[in-house]
Amino acid sequence: MRKILVALGAAALLALHGSVVQAQDQDAANDDAEDQMQEEEWETATATLRDQEGKTVGTVELEETPTGVLLRVTLEAVPPGVHAFHIHETGQCEPPFESAGGHFNPDGTAHGFFSDEGPHAGDMPNIHVPDSGALTFEVFNTLVTLVEGDPASLFDDDGSAIVIHAGEDDYESDPAGHAGDRIACGVIE
Ligand SMILES: [Cu+2]
Question: How much is the pTM?
């Protein structure tokens, strides 16, 4: 009788061990699934900003979120002052950057935060660059997405670009906020 009990005990232990191993496998599988989900759900992109001479003046990291795209921007060598900062509709940055087209505007709205018919999806707040030319900031855009196939996708057929202008955006003048020349441009990729 004692022998049987011992045998049963061993079997129970084995069974328990088996289920622990299984649980660990399941955890690993869950982790893999979460990793995959995160990769699929939170798409990222980057843009290297260059001036008209081709010099790199900053970088932008874009990350998808449930309600828009977060842009993390690091500028190293942008002329001091207040500049318009937009997403433009074409992913081409040939100096003088007219190749980037107008503002990203999939909804066909008017320009500017203060426009009754605005803003463009690519409109974003002005940036204030100090004398050093270096500035790190983040901006959140709820009107765009990195998800391909969505009408608001920055990865549409001809891509998109981030543009810094010589002057500031007046948040009103259609179609470009009276912001002047394009001093830096980066294709979103
Ligand atoms: Cu612009």
Answer: 0.79
